[in-house]
Amino acid sequence: MKKQICIYFLIFLFGRISNGFNIINFFKKHTYNKFFIENRFRPVQEEKTIKIKHNNQLFTNLNNKIYAQIGSNPKFLSNFQSYTWLDGDGMIHAVCFNKSSLTYHNKWIETRKINFENKMNRKIFMNIGNFYDYNGIFNFIIFSIKTFLKMIPPVKGTANTALFKSKNRIFALYEGDMPYELEFTENPFNVITKSYMELENITSLTAHPLIDKKRNLNYIYTYNNYDWKDGKLIFNVFNEDMKFISQKNISLINNGIIHSITNTEDKIIVADMPMKFSLFNLLNFEQPLYFDKEGITRFGIFDIDKMNDPEWYYFDENFFIFHFAKSFETETEYIIYACLNKDLNMKTIMKFEEKKKKQRREDSILREIRINKKTKKTSINYNRYLEYIENIEFPYFLDFPQPSIVDENILYACIFDAEKAYIRGVLKINIKDFRNTKPDIFLFPENTFGTAEFQPVKINNKEYLMGFIDKENQHSISLINIKKKKIESIDIPARIPPGFHSICFEK
Asked: Distance between CA atoms of 507 and 505, rounded to whole angstroms?
């Protein structure tokens, strides 16, 4: 892949020069993208452990639980390079609960990348944001040469995206790399990076594995992110001890990212959606991953026990899904809940582009997908209350859908203010009659927002959403009661920047 880019770059550069292109303007100065390292996204530069005593009865019931959020927190930055939110080193922000106290701890995951940069005491490795700079391709060629000459180790990921638990083992995940195993210790509370998973002929695993409780298996797939030539899903099966069992390769018609797939009790559902990769976009300083509105969207479904080839079901309209909520199968249908995006702009994710107020876009909205087994017809059902949420102006979108842990008919989702790039509130919806049910919606008070995905927790037979809240720069661990529109919090004297996914588990 690196060799290909170098060759294409030289051809591209020669073509530009031969057409009278001014080589000086090729590396001209420009404004660097810094949105995701400023203000509330500003990375923290210190690891802390803080013990907090409390007499909050609600939090007392969380005894022996740990809540952990993972996100992007770059340790070494350059003032002369652009940065995207996906680029930063993985950092854990965790809370360990005891009866009358809690301990907060934040820690960088000790990846191979960050260990080498710690040794050199500066930024060494290229990241996605660097390609937006006018000298990005040139720097990538220099970086590739140094890697080829073994001046720089061939490390990849940042372990910054999600956390995964199998039996008593916890892993930090990043889509373009292998997982790092973590250990959460007590006395003192600490997050230790134990090891890097290495498997023969497998170079990366997904950030969103599927857990099969019926068979005690984990499905940890990946896709062709090494040369992007062909679309391919690589479906890996592990046991609950994380021992590799088998692998199945599935050809796709699209060659972009597959951030998540979904499953029913006996079927795997693969979403083949028109997210595509173009090397020539990269050479023109454009986002290489793009959503093709004129492409093809289809779902492939296969039996997990038979491991047969998928049966494909096609859609009349195109969309992309970052996160599925849940799926199940009836005698006649597959029913799937996910946040669909029909007008995906990767620049919004990578660079952040402000959106005009009151401009309705087909951004990520929770919807119901139905696939008829007999007719093979597909349909997408809308809920009008989600399409136009009261008391919130456009643009907004819904994401981080979560199934309830106490009621199979309940789903949760976060409400994002897309103009300001933060979580504005949460919602709860009963999917028994998805199209007509009015959801419970809780918009947070002004200047209050969530910092990442919330986790459902059960306390005294009631369900709450737990996560970090930022209220006018005062951070807290919080329990949200959507129905009562109430937030119960314990303040933490530390800054917790927005992150990605989270997990809650017993010690």
From this structure: 7
